[in-house]
Design a protein that fits this description.
The structure holds 2 protein chains of 2 kinds. Chain A is mainly beta. The longest helix of chain A has 6 residues. The radius of gyration of chain A is 40 Å and the shape is rod-shaped. Chain B is mainly beta. In chain B, about 5% of the residues lie in helices and about 30% in strands. Chain B has 6 helices and 43 strands. In chain B, a hairpin with a 4-residue loop joins strand 12 and strand 13. The radius of gyration of chain B is 43 Å and the shape is rod-shaped. Classes of the chains: A mainly beta, B mainly beta.
């Protein structure tokens, strides 16, 4: 079965790696698959010369992309290379049409949503802020106003003499 | 001429359905000036190329040919300048007939001799006109601009003869692919009055184009003028007597919106370019496309929110894309995008600035959405939404596809509470205008200075020989008094010190001596100008000022449970406040003091709404001065205990301190292990000791300190909550409860895809 092996560098979590695959230098091989074959995780039988130098593969027959893991040398001629389907890239076009609910996103920030993942330190800011003024003053000086801090309460005292 | 509105049968192409529709309109109104419209399409749900046709300009004719096949009929109307109106016709390539709009048929024809035409493909619209050679004709495509609520238009003036076709209208969205003749001065452009291209916008499936205007774009070695957005579709086309199959690049396809004003190469990384040339008989100078006249230029994997600048040239009759710095010529055509969407919008807008916003320096794409129920346009712009009344489209050919049966009302959206409804106001009683004064002369209050008090005391208890001794200074009392000062003291209720100047508070009237009991002669503990004043109102209102509650982070961290706010009121103590109630707002404080009892009430409200009480605290602010040992002390107010503050400072100032919280935990949560108030207090105090402490009200805000690494967004993402198609997103994306409906892969793959999306991927 024909396959195209190459090396690409983007994150495995990148949705569509086809541009990287397109730009990569590919080696076309007729590969053998160890049977029974799991389409999601096939194991390739390759000549030892191809044991290293590749981390990605496309199988036209299946139309799927695969990550290639570390090879295991079987003998002097062949090695086994486990492959894992890159489900994201293999289904990129359909995935892009999915309507999803996003709860974390690189390009937007809902500032009113609590972010439980934001790292919190043990330090506390304490900020004190005074009101702009206060009526309370113990200062006996004044700008022309009489300074009166005392209140005397007396019985009667309207100055009329009461029942006199 | 009035064009009747008619409806055709449903046209199906793939899963796209469209129906031609032509409304009534007078054609010679000023509204459509220059009223040389060509036609427009309204298509919804555009997964595939939807060809309508094209306009072809020939040696002596401009042919407007519809797309027809054995099952499809479309109404197409075309208008040319009034001078040649009678000579205009629509040519149906299939049956070779020319149709006259005055007839009750699809097309519109004119009289005269048929000229030659170069149209040869099934999906071509030809505008054919006779006797052109001496006539200048303007063709016009117009697009409804939801931003300016008007038309953006494209016109082209041609003088016959022209040796090549003019262009066509085709594609499932609006498309114009114009002129490809080596000597043509053609540009592709759509402007509004502000010079911005307006085509369409928003998350809509309906693309409505009515007119398309274009400026002049010079040929290859000239400098292109400022073309704006071009939206196009790769459709089958014909060039110079050769027919070429159209190509749909992918099931969905892509739209390229090109900005014609380029300086330098602003192409960003990770872009992919696909070249597909569908012509084999054209020579070309392009190193990338040796196959002929028209290629397809596609852009994919473009991050959102970044504009792209390209330059387009006409080279050898082909529209090409040139990157100035690299001087790379790439033939360009267009191909359709499955869904007119934000994806297209974002793809179109690419710059090298990560902070560029959609539409930046390039212009916005607008296209209206059609509400099938009301047939009204629902325009959604990049920066907002607006609803526009369906514009008059009498001259446009409109295609309507099968109605979408899903409506917004079907969504089981939970009812939102009415957050705009008002609750009950918790208003403080306004004592400002209600002064409670002494009643019936039971008790009289006098405001006194320290000197008054000192002299008054001397008058009572000075040595008998002291000239200040009241008896010696000749104070005359009624016969009710003996000369024993104790008798006078029996008429005194209390003497109290207040930590504010009663002389400023406006409570005192004119200065006076002290009248005691029924005495008609006052005691004068001082000289004129320094005498006590009779207090007319028991209750005074003091201004405690305002306070702008600050924000530190400007986000959720300013609110509970991430922050904690305590209000301290002098003589009253402290109270917890609710950050979400007051952060970012201004507080107003007023003190209400009962001079009779020394009681103090401090009421804090929002400055923007003084009927909203934030906090109400009570205390005592008077310190009694013992002047007698008898039962008159019962008039003295018991002094409440208050917390002794240790903060001093200038009124209105702030201070920030950092402390380490014991037992603080990571993540958002209650601020456990933290002191509830930065100022600690214990014990009670009375009398003058009670007056010690901060004399200005303040708040203490405690925030948890966070660390946000530079790559936080890229590695972790920010907290959001919205729904969208993945193709409209870019960067790190973490989803929740992904519905994999629509994926045709195996169940194992669907499961794996769901898991990855819910762990986070990069788009």
């Amino acid at each position: 079965m024909k396959a195209y092996l190459c090396t690409i560098s983007p994150s495995t979590l990148l949705l569509d790696k086809r541009p990287y695959y397109a730009d990569a230098v590919k080696t076309e091989l007729e590969i053998e698959i160890f049977m029974p074959c799991d389409i999601m995780n096939p194991v390739l039988k390759l000549q030892n010369q191809y044991a290293t130098g590749f981390n990605y593969m496309y199988v036209p027959k299946w139309g799927k992309y695969y990550f290639l893991d570390d090879a295991t040398i079987l003998n002097g001629e062949f090695c086994s290379v486990p492959a894992r389907m890159d489900v994201l890239t293999s289904n990129a076009d359909e995935i892009k049409n999915l309507n999803v609910r996003v709860i974390r996103y690189e390009r937007q920030n809902n500032k009113n949503l609590p972010d439980a993942k934001m790292p919190k330190t043990a330090k506390i800011f304490t900020r004190n802020k005074l009101f702009s003024t206060t009526p309370f003053s113990y200062d006996d000086t004044s700008d022309g106003y009489p300074v009166m801090h005392y209140v005397l309460s007396v019985v009667g005292g309207d100055g009329s003499g009461g029942g006199e | 001429m009035i064009l009747s509105e008619r409806y055709n049968t449903t046209v199906t192409q793939g899963d796209l359905q469209a129906t031609a529709k032509i409304p009534d309109i007078p054609i010679d109104t000023a509204e459509f000036s220059p009223a040389y419209w060509l036609g427009w399409m309204q298509v919804e749900k555009i997964p595939q190329v939807f060809n309508v046709g094209r306009i072809v300009l020939t040696d002596s004719t401009v042919v407007f040919e519809t797309l027809t096949d054995t099952t499809v009929n479309r109404d197409i109307y075309m208008e040319c300048s009034t001078d040649v109106q009678d000579n205009a016709a629509v040519y149906d390539r299939f049956d070779g007939n020319y149709y006259d709009g005055t007839e009750n048929v699809e097309k519109w024809t004119c009289s005269g001799t048929l000229g030659t035409n170069h149209n040869r493909l099934v999906n071509e619209l030809h505008y054919q006109q006779y006797g052109f050679s001496s006539i200048s004709v303007t063709f016009c495509i117009k697009i409804w601009n939801t931003n300016i609520n008007g038309w953006g238009y494209v016109t082209r003036a041609l003088t016959m003869p022209i040796n090549d076709w003019l262009g066509f209208i085709g594609g499932n969205d609006l498309t114009v692919n114009f002129p490809m003749h080596g000597d043509e001065d053609i540009s592709i452009d759509m402007f509004d009055s502000n010079g911005f291209a307006r085509i369409g916008d928003g998350e809509t499936d309906v693309l409505f184009i009515s007119e398309y205007s274009f400026n002049q774009l010079k040929n290859a070695y000239g400098y292109p003028q400022y073309g704006k957005i071009v939206m196009g579709v790769h459709v089958p086309f014909v060039y110079q007597d050769n027919a070429y199959d159209g190509t749909i690049i992918s099931e969905i396809g892509r739209i390229n919106y090109f900005h014609f004003n380029v300086s330098g190469d602003n192409i960003v990384d990770n872009e992919t370019y696909y070249w597909m040339c569908s012509s084999t008989d054209r020579t070309t100078t392009s190193p990338y496309c040796n196959n002929g006249a028209h290629g397809v230029f596609d852009r994919d994997n473009l991050p959102n929110g970044r504009g792209v600048n390209d330059r387009y040239w006409i080279i050898n009759g082909n529209v090409v894309l040139q990157y100035e710095e690299r001087y790379t010529e790439i033939f360009v055509a267009f191909h359709p995008m499955g869904i007119m969407h934000h994806a297209a919008l974002y793809r179109w807008e690419i710059t090298e600035s990560d902070t560029a916003t959609p539409g930046y320096s390039i212009g916005n794409i607008y296209y209206p959405k059609i509400d099938l129920a009301t047939n009204e346009f629902l325009g959604e712009l990049i920066t907002g939404t607006e609803t526009v009344i369906k514009p008059q489209l009498p001259t446009w050919m409109k295609y309507e596809i099968s109605e979408n049966t899903y409506t917004e009302d079907d969504k089981p959206v939970p009812t939102e509470p009415d957050t705009d409804s008002d609750g009950d106001n918790i208003s403080p009683h306004d004592f400002t205008n209600q002064q409670v004064g002494n009643a019936n002369n039971f008790v009289t209050l006098y405001a006194m200075s320290a000197d008054n008090v000192e002299k008054f005391g001397r008058m009572l208890w000075a040595a008998l020989s002291d000239p200040n001794y009241w008896h010696l200074i000749g104070t005359v009392f009624t016969s009710d008094f003996s000369i024993n000062p104790a008798d006078i003291l029996s008429y005194i209720n209390f003497l109290r010190y207040y930590p504010f100047n009663l002389g400023l508070s406006g409570t005192g009237g004119a200065e006076t001596g002290i009248y005691i009991g029924r005495a008609t002669t006052p005691i004068l503990p001082g000289s004129v100008g320094n005498l006590p004043k009779k207090i007319s109102h028991n209750l005074i209102v003091l201004d405690g000022g305002t306070l702008d509650v600050p924000t530190l982070y400007g986000d959720f961290r300013d609110y509970e449970p991430c922050s904690d706010i305590t209000l301290y009121i002098p003589f009253c103590g402290s109270a917890k406040l609710c950050p979400s109630e007051i952060v970012g707002k201004t507080l107003t404080l007023k003190y209400y003091v009962d001079l009779q009892t020394g009681a103090l009430k401090a009421i804090t409200t929002l400055a923007s709404d003084t009927s909203y009480i934030v906090a109400s605290l009570a205390g005592t602010c008077g310190a009694s001065i013992q002047i007698t040992s008898n039962n008159n002390i019962e008039f003295l107010q018991r002094i409440a205990t208050v917390a002794a503050g240790a903060i001093t400072g200038t009124t209105g100032a702030e201070s920030i301190t950092e402390t380490i919280a014991a037992g603080a935990v990571s993540g958002v949560g209650a601020m456990s292990g933290l002191p509830s108030v930065a100022v600690h207090s214990s014990g009670n105090s009375t009398g003058f000791a009670n007056l010690a402490g901060c004399d200005t009200a303040y708040i203490t805000i405690q925030y948890q300190k966070y660390i946000v690494p530079d790559n936080y967004g890229h590695t972790t993402g920010y907290a959001v909550q919205f729904s969208d198609d993945i193709k409209n997103l870019s960067g790190y994306v973490l989803c929740e409860n992904v519905d994999t409906t629509g994926l045709t892969c195996s169940e194992d793959e669907r499961t794996a895809i769901k898991q990855l999306l819910e762990r986070g991927i990069y788009v």
